[in-house]
Every structure is written in structure tokens, then in C-alpha cells.
Amino acid sequence: VSDVDVCCWAYEAQTRRLRSALAENAGLIHRKDSxxxxxxxxxxxxxxTDIVKILISLGAEVxxxxxxxxxxxxxxxxxxxxxxxxELLANGANADIATTNGQTALHYxxxxxxxxxxxxLIQSGCPVAxxxxxxxxxxxxAVSRGHLEVMKLLLSAxxxxxxxDTEGNTPLHLAADEGHKRVYDELKRAGADPDIVNKEGxxxxxxxx
Length: 209
Fold this sequence. Notes:
This protein is mostly helical and about 210 residues long. The chain has 2 domains: about 1-125, Ankyrin repeat-containing domain (Serine Threonine Protein Phosphatase 5, Tetratricopeptide repeat, Alpha Horseshoe), CATH 1.25.40; about 135-209, Serine Threonine Protein Phosphatase 5, Tetratricopeptide repeat, CATH 1.25.40. The protein has 12 helices and no strands. The protein has helices spanning about 5-10, 15-25, 40-45, 50-55, 70-80, 80-90, 105-110, 120-125, 140-145, 150-155, 170-180, 180-190. The longest helix is centred in the first third of the chain and has 10 residues, at about 15-25. Keywords: ANK repeat, Proteasome, Repeat. Pfam families: Ank, Ank_2, Ank_4. This is 26S proteasome non-ATPase regulatory subunit 10. InterPro entries: Ankyrin_rpt (IPR002110), Ankyrin_rpt-contain_sf (IPR036770).
């Protein structure tokens, strides 16, 4: 799992070992492994909410970033660990931080169809309009994977259906390209413009196979 013992113990929820090590050396809570992940990162990988609470109470940095700028919140959101997300946000986790690809916790939650997490992220201020380095918003991510209910949540939070990514594609283009008819129809009802052209000069309907 990790080349640092406290990270492994956090991942495996070995509470006694973890507490003992941190009692002997409090600085271990900030120790990073070869991927720059802390014990808190690893607790979030495996969804160990009790360990997350312990680590935060002992002073763990909730917004620590690994070598790809993943925070514990991004990890927990991507993995679908709702209780960890709630605990992190209650203790100052910044939902606006993005990875090296420009993707926030909301991008990953949208991609992975994390319906229970998305409202919490939105309420905490995670930006629905944030574009990653490919120009994709969380709405683009949800639509490309056909996640209808996630898409509805994002639209109800005022996500624009007409944002274009770096290829000029709107979410409507992606829905057409992937053959997600129900998603396409819902986007149209939400005000998606079918006449926007991408960099290839194609409208959404031109993307249908």
C-alpha cells in the first residue's frame, strides 16, 4: 500500500498501532510517503472514517496534497466515502482545490456517479463551473458517462449546459457522441443549445454514430 508504516496502519484501520506511534512521535502525522501521501490520505482511500476523525483531532493537515495534488477530500469523493467527505468538510477541507489535471472533488464525484456526495460538495462551495485542463466541467464528466441523476443535480445547481471544452464540445456533443439519449433529451430541456459547433465544425447531432 505505502512505504510508510503510519500510512499503512491508517489504511488498514490499525488504531492501536497508529495511536501508539503518534504518541511516541507526533510528527509522524505529517510524514509523507513516496507519492507524498499522508496517513490521512490513506485513511480516505479505504474509507476509515474513525481513523480520519482521530487523525484530524491530532492535527493532521486536511488539505495536504500528494504528488498529483490530490487532497484527502478528492480521494474520499472519488472513492465514494460519504462519511469521510462529511468529516473532512466539517474540519476545513477546501473543496476548491484541483489536481494537476485541474479536476476538483466534484469532477471525480461526477465521473464516478457519487450521488450521495455531490450535494454535500456543492453546498460546501465546490464550483460547478470549474473547467479542468481539458476544458471539461463536472457536467461534461457526468454526461460523458451517462450519469443522468448526477447531471440533474448539477443542472439544478446552475451548471451551464453550454460550456465548451478544449475541443469545442458542449455536454450535448458528448451525450450525442456516446449515445446517451435520455441524457441528451434532458440537456435539451435544460436549455442546451444544439446549434453550437465544436472545433471540427460539428453540431451535437452531427456526433451521433
